[in-house]
TrEMBL record:
Phosphoprotein listed as a keyword: no
GO molecular function: peptidase activity
Sequence ranges assigned to domain PDZ in this UniProt record: 281-342
UniProt xrefs under NCBIfam families: degP_htrA_DO (TIGR02037)
Protein name, as recorded: DegQ protease
InterPro entries: Chloro_Bact_Ser_Proteases, PDZ, PDZ_sf, Pept_S1C_Do, Peptidase_S1_PA, Peptidase_S1C
Pfam families per the UniProt record, alphabetical: PDZ_2 (PF13180), Trypsin_2 (PF13365)
Keywords annotated in UniProt: Hydrolase, Protease, Repeat, Serine protease, Signal
GO biological process, one term: proteolysis
Length: 383
């Protein structure tokens, strides 16, 4: 028995030694364990109720970029001459070497959006204002001279037109469904480097009282907008036009993450009016108004701080003819409440001239309703 045990022990020792040597020298000779194969199937996103977030906005950019154009403008600017050059004595000795009457050529750049296959392009008024020549460069390399169809300085919108065929266009988005936090893309030609796409979110809606335009209802975004982006497109993740980039808040001239775009609803209204009528006709009340602060509301014994306090009235204007007086507080227009003076201005501008509209005012501690015949807003001189 002891002999058998000795043989078994020696055999086992030799076997282990052989296995150890093979595992070091030729491990592939050793048999491998066969594991059970398990097939894992992932449920479709629709079935699980979870939709994967997109990791690229290529489709939106690819759809929108062809319809965004670069705009190059040029105009002649007459240089200012020194007052002494008007003196015959100095002219006798120096002539016109320090400033003649020859105009100097200046150029600038911006962006625009093709909104019709008939060649209509929407841009900012300040991009093409007073331009003698306007050249449009498309993303496909084509260029064309453009002419101004009309402009609206109060909203800083202008419409120009080119004569080319096979033009790509952008569709207008439903801005009413937009919310703070939605992803947007800004497309333009910043600093003249070429067409560029930047991404951000909607930071705020309905921004006003910024002192940029007469009528303000801006979309605020942190998508980078720089000089040259003016007039370019702000689009959603479907590539539809959300707004026209128009201004930035900056202390250095570059983007600080605070940009403003004119919403597509305003762009569409102004564009249609310019194309059809050559300009925009707005309602006018003929008053000077200011916001109702909590202090003013308390002094007038008003229940809440809202409305527009009438500080002045244009003589023989619509408000004057309706019997409105300084000190009245305008609370409602045609059944719509007035939030502040900016809201009042926008509501009045949207009314058709020569129509009679009921307006709710607060006077001497009580509410009254007056009928006002809306006038036509006069264009400011120099615009």
């Amino acid at each position: 028995m002891k002999k058998l045990w000795l043989i078994f022990a020696q055999t086992a020792t030799i076997g282990l030694a052989v296995w150890f040597v093979i595992s070091l020298v030729a491990p592939q000779w050793l048999p491998r364990p066969v594991a059970d194969v398990v097939t894992v199937r992932q449920a479709p996103a629709e079935a699980s109720g979870v939709v994967a977030a997109p990791n690229s906005y290529h489709d939106a950019a690819h759809r929108a970029m062809p319809a965004v154009v670069n705009i190059y403008t040029a105009k002649d600017v007459k240089p200012r001459s020194h007052p002494l050059m008007n003196d015959p004595f100095f002219k006798r000795f120096f002539g016109d070497r320090f400033g003649g009457d020859d105009a100097q050529r200046t150029s600038s750049l911006g962006s625009g959006v093709i909104v019709s296959d008939r060649g209509y392009i929407v841009t900012n008024n300040h991009v093409v204002e007073s331009a003698d020549e306007i050249e449009v460069a498309l993303a496909d390399g084509r260029t064309a001279e453009a002419k101004i169809i009309g402009s609206d300085p109060d909203t800083d919108i202008a419409v120009i037109k080119i004569d080319l065929d096979r033009l790509p266009t952008l569709t207008f988005a439903d801005v009413q469904r937009m919310q703070v936090g939605d992803v947007v893309l800004a497309i333009g030609n910043p600093f003249g480097v070429g067409q560029t796409v930047t991404m951000g979110i909607v930071s705020a809606l309905g921004r006003s009282q910024l002192g940029i335009n007469t009528f303000e209802n801006f979309i605020q975004t942190d998508a980078a907008i720089n000089p040259g982006n003016s007039g370019g497109a702000l689009v959603d993740t479907r590539g539809s036009l959300v707004g026209i980039n128009t201004a930035i808040y900056s202390r250095s001239g570059g983007s600080l993450g605070i940009g403003f775009a004119i919403p597509a609803t305003t762009v569409r209204q102004v564009m249609d009016a310019i194309i059809q009528d050559g300009g925009v006709t707005r309602g006018w009340l003929g008053i000077e108004a200011q916001d109702v602060t909590p202090e003013l509301a308390a002094s007038f014994k008003l229940a809440e701080a809202r409305g527009a306090l009438i500080a002045g009235i244009v003589r023989a204007g619509p408000a004057d003819a309706a019997g409105m007086r300084p000190g009245d507080i305008l609370l409602g227009i045609n059944g719509h409440p007035v939030k502040d003076s900016s809201d009042m201005l926008n509501q009045i501008a949207g009314l058709r001239p020569d129509t009679e509209v009921p307006m709710e005012i607060f006077r001497a501690g009580k509410g009254e309703t007056v009928q006002v015949k809306i006038g036509k807003r006069p264009r400011l001189s120099g615009r």
